[in-house]
Amino acid sequence: MRPIERALVVGAGTMGHGIAQVLAAAGIEVTLVDVAQDLVDRGLQRIKANLESGVAKGKVTAAAKDATLAKLCGSTDLPLALSSADLLVEAIPEDMQKKRELFSLADTKMHVGALLASNTSSLSITEIASATKRPEHVVGLHFFNPVHLMKLLEIVRGALTAAAVVEAARALAARLGKTCIVVNDSPGFATSRLGLAVGLEATRMLEEGVASAADIDTAMKLGYGYPMGPLALGDLVGLDVRLAIAEAMHEQLGTDTFRPPRLLRKLVRLGHLGKKSGRGFFLYDDKGEIVGDNPVARPPGAHA
Prior knowledge:
The protein is of the alpha/beta class.
């Protein structure tokens, strides 16, 4: 594999702009691409805000902030950005057809030594890679939100991913200051499969009236050391995203563990998608802070 000097991140949303930030902070030239200029600009602005917050908290130096921003640029010209990149990190929505279309285009535009990576949290790397003529160069790089703070990078090895590509991914993780795990391509990998199982069971407990959303989350935070409760995490990820992953996992594995709870379907149907919509399992204020349980998520007869 060629040394990674230039990277392309496709998708300027929650995960994409975070991935672009950590790559740039590691000294890699990064182009952040999305379908519209306003989306690109918003992603770059969020990176700047993250860095400025880090400076204000004394966690990032002003020099490091400036150096990171100097490594970043934005574009809507995907073919051009692909042609000069040593690394592609795809961070678009979890739609297999769209991912395959992107990787097929990347296969035609990127140089022969490039690394092609997907940030998917649940879709098959092997299937994504089959859209290319170089599946051995395709790997999963599953980052976690917020990317600039979370220490884990899950490397997913597809059925045909070359050993050298896995080692290049390990080296990149070290360069980014991440601890990595390597897993084989299977539904939900390691992290999504385990995390989703806990999140769905917490939803069923809420649905059954076992405890309030706040108390279920407190149980996992104080009893098991979770930094965030499984219900609040679902709100952060997006309940529509969680439902889509649960449906895919249930279809692939066929176990009741991943059967989407009725409450989850109800909230998504009502547009209560979590933090991004201001209500999910919890209610949120304008600053994104939890202000209480969502009454719609309480089972019949439960007290406020």
